[in-house]
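Weekly sync, protein design subgroup
Attendees: M.S., D.O., the rotation student, P.L. (late)

Item 1: inverse folding check
M.S. brought a backbone from last month's batch and wanted to see whether the design step gives back something sensible before we order anything. D.O. pointed out we never logged the input encoding, so this time it goes straight into the notes. Structure tokens as presented (78 positions):
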């Protein structure tokens, strides 16, 4: 990571789940190659963390109405 003062695991892609390597890792790798600033896993890096601070109400919820859509010929995420 490039966050000053934040310690994170030295290996970014880690898990003990048996589905991680054959199913999750290929999706994360594809997504990060397609969009280098996408937040793909916890503590990815500062360039991949975005927040919308506009219209935040007293309880902390964000009242913006927005849609994020990433499309690929064989994969569509809505």
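Designed sequence read out in the meeting:
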């Amino acid at each position: 990571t490039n966050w000053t003062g934040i310690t994170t695991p030295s290996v970014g892609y880690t898990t003990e789940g048996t589905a991680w390597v054959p199913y999750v890792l290929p999706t994360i790798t594809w997504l990060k190659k397609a969009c280098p600033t996408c937040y793909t896993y916890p503590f990815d890096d500062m360039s991949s963390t975005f927040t919308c601070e506009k219209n935040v109400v007293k309880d902390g919820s964000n009242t913006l109405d927005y849609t994020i859509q990433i499309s690929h010929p064989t994969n569509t995420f809505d």
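Discussion: Strands lie at 70-71, 76-77. The chain has one domain: 20-77.
Action: P.L. to compare against the previous round before Friday.
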